[in-house]
């Protein structure tokens, strides 16, 4: 079984609707070393929640890693990487950050502990619970 992740995007820069329209999209522009290491740890077939940050602050869909880490073409310097993500499906019910923070089961979730991190691992237990909250039966 593959890994589980959460990736954040500001919807006014790149939204779920754009991900769906493009089907497969390079996840570029990550400029945080911890997030970069998380991108490098992703494997083809892993699933990730697509999270709208800043505007909405909610999980809106699920994407799948279609291509593992490779050099980010948007980086002018450094060893930054990106992955390709493929749209899988929207969540029937978006899961808001306020709901996640209100649930004691998520106190150790990176989204709660490290809210500025743009790419983070999600445990299988948290993945399953968030899917249920979003009305998706995996």
Descriptive report:
The protein is an alpha+beta fold and 138 residues long. It has helices at residues 16-22, 33-41, 97-102, 110-113, 124-133; strands at residues 4-9, 24-27, 47-52, 58-71, 81-96, 119-121. The model has no long low-confidence stretch (mean pLDDT 96).
What's a quick, concise take on this entry?
The chain is an alpha+beta fold and 138 residues long. 26% of the residues lie in helices and 36% in strands.
Spans of at least 5 consecutive residues whose pLDDT stays below 50 are none
Q: CATH class, please?
A: Alpha Beta
| CATH fold group | ph1033 like fold
Number of helices: 5
Into how many domains do the coordinates divide?
1
The beta-strand count equals 6
The helix fraction, in percent, is 25-40%
Could you tell me the mean pLDDT? Answer: 96
Shape: globular
- Spatial ordering of strands, largest sheet: 2-5-4-3-1-6
SS class? alpha+beta
- Strand portion: 35-45%
CATH architecture field = Roll
CATH H-level superfamily: ph1033 like domains
Order of helices and strands: EHEHEEEHHEH
User: What is the alpha-carbon Rg in Å?
Assistant: 14 Å
Question: Main sheet?
Answer: 6 strands, mixed
């Amino acid at each position: 079984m593959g890994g589980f992740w959460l990736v954040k995007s500001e919807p006014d820069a790149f939204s779920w609707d754009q991900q769906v329209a493009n089907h497969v999209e390079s996840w570029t522009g990550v400029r945080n070393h911890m997030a970069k290491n998380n991108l490098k740890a992703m494997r083809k077939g892993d699933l990730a929640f697509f999270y709208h940050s800043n505007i909405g602050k909610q999980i809106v869909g699920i994407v799948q890693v279609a291509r593992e880490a490779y050099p980010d073409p948007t980086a002018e310097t450094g060893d930054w990487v990106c992955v390709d993500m493929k749209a899988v499906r929207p969540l029937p019910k978006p899961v808001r950050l306020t709901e996640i923070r209100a649930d004691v089961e998520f106190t150790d979730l990176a989204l709660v502990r490290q809210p500025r991190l743009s790419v983070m691992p999600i445990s299988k237990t948290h993945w399953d619970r968030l899917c249920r909250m979003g009305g998706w039966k995996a």
